[in-house]
Specification:
- The protein contains 16 helices and 11 strands.
- By secondary structure, the protein is an alpha/beta fold.
- The chain has 2 domains: 11-205 and 339-379, Rossmann fold (3-Layer(aba) Sandwich), CATH 3.40.50.10540; 226-308, formyl-coa transferase, domain 3 (2-Layer Sandwich), CATH 3.30.1540.
- The strands form 3 sheets. Strands 3-2-1-4-5-6 form a 6-stranded parallel β-sheet, with helices on both faces. A 3-stranded antiparallel β-sheet has the order 7-8-9. Strands 10-11 form a two-stranded antiparallel sheet.
């Protein structure tokens, strides 16, 4: 691998907090962009309450704390935007405009700027001012109801996910949209404003359900179920006829090929009976035995790994999926981005910034300010 990362030379002004914006900015940093995180005075990013989670989302960035409610702080932020190729923000729509830092306020003097706004429902429209975190996006997008229907457990209460899917998915889409805008800038010479929403990003998870919602008497979409073994469960996905043939061979049940209940197009309708037949075989074997035999026959399957089991997982170790990070909480592992280049290193940095750690550096090197002027800003409470 070469020493230069693929996005080296690009500068990012990251005004985002919590998860969606910060993970996007961290991926930019992992791939070589210089990311300056602009945090509110005092507590900074609210996720700092948990240093490990904060580090996961902000490793490799520089931190400066600015009072954006003050015109002098806004002037500093304008300077950082002028110096940037990319801006990321996930305030509620209208907040950046209140600070005079929205795209409309900066695009004339920064025509090449790629400005990414992340929100729950969009920058305009009847729902634009609604507060939103990931669970709200899950509920509003149809994801939670679709998940509940797929489980078919008879419980009328929607199953809310405790995993912040919308944040991570929106951050990934934002990362891709920024790359697209940067490519567009190569040909047009101009940047753009990206308006990306958590709700619509989460809706991208349910394309089959969206299409079947437009059909009378739709067939069931999805609905895969865990299969019991003697010491736990494995997940199987029998999608193609090749998968089905491999399963029948693996469990030595050639008769299932002739069973009308399990013919193509009917297996999902009879999933409970299908799983029961498989469990006649799997319940007599361990997870490890089932995985080995099924994989040998090309059947898509996996054990259910707990998070604490991932760090020693041989495939993940082979890929270098985790990086050691060092901070006041000790040494611990954080995950690298899930894509790798043959020619570039894009592993994450080994440290995350403390609040305002780089304030002096940023003001001196990015805004060319003198130490005396920086000291005055500190004394008047504009920066920390």
């Amino acid at each position: 691998m070469v020493g230069t990362k693929p996005l080296a030379g690009l500068k990012v002004a990251d005004f985002s907090m919590v998860y969606a914006g910060p993970i996007c900015a961290r991926m930019l940093s992992d791939n070589g962009a210089e990311v300056t995180k602009i945090e509110p005075l005092g507590m900074g990013d609210t996720v700092r309450a948990n240093s490990r989670i904060f580090s996961h989302f902000n490793a490799g960035k520089k931190s400066i704390q600015i009072d954006l409610s003050d015109s002098r702080g806004q002037s500093l932020a304008h300077g950082l935007i002028d110096d940037a190729d990319i801006v990321i923000e996930n305030y509620r729509p209208g907040v950046m405009a209140r600070f005079g830092l929205d795209y409309a306020a900066v695009k004339e003097r920064c025509p090449k700027l790629v400005y990414c706004s992340i929100s729950g429902f969009g920058q305009t429209g009847p729902d634009s001012q609604r507060a939103a975190y990931a669970p709200i996006a899950h509920a509003a997008s149809g994801y939670d109801i679709s998940h509940m229907r797929a489980q078919q457990d008879g419980n009328p209460r929607p199953a809310a996910s405790g995993i912040m899917i919308a944040d991570m998915l929106t951050g990934a889409y934002a990362f891709g949209a920024i790359q697209t805008a940067l490519l567009g800038r190569v040909s047009s010479g101009l940047g753009d404003h990206i308006d990306i929403t958590m709700a619509e990003s989460t809706m991208m998870l349910i394309p089959g359900q969206q299409q079947m919602a437009q059909v009378a008497d739709p067939p069931q979409v999805g609905g895969f179920q865990p299969v019991a073994t003697s010491d736990g469960f494995v997940m199987l996905c029998i999608v193609s006829e090749k998968n089905f043939d491999g399963l029948c061979s693996a469990i030595e049940r050639a008769d299932m090929r002739e069973d009308e209940r399990f013919a193509r197009g009917k297996r999902f309708l009879n999933m409970g009976e299908f799983v029961a037949e498989i469990e006649i075989w799997s319940s007599q074997r361990t997870i490890a035995e089932c995985e080995a035999i099924l994989n040998q026959h090309g059947v898509p399957c996996s054990r259910f790994n707990a998070p604490e089991e991932l760090f020693a997982q041989p495939q993940l170790q082979h890929r270098g999926a985790f990086q050691t990070l060092r901070d006041d909480d000790g040494d611990y592992l954080i995950q690298n981005v899930p894509f790798q280049f043959e020619s570039f290193d894009n592993s994450t940095a080994q440290q995350a910034p403390s609040p305002g750690e780089h304030t002096d550096w940023v003001l001196q090197h990015q805004l060319n300010m003198e130490p005396a002027n920086i000291a005055q800003l500190r004394e008047t409470g504009i920066v920390e």
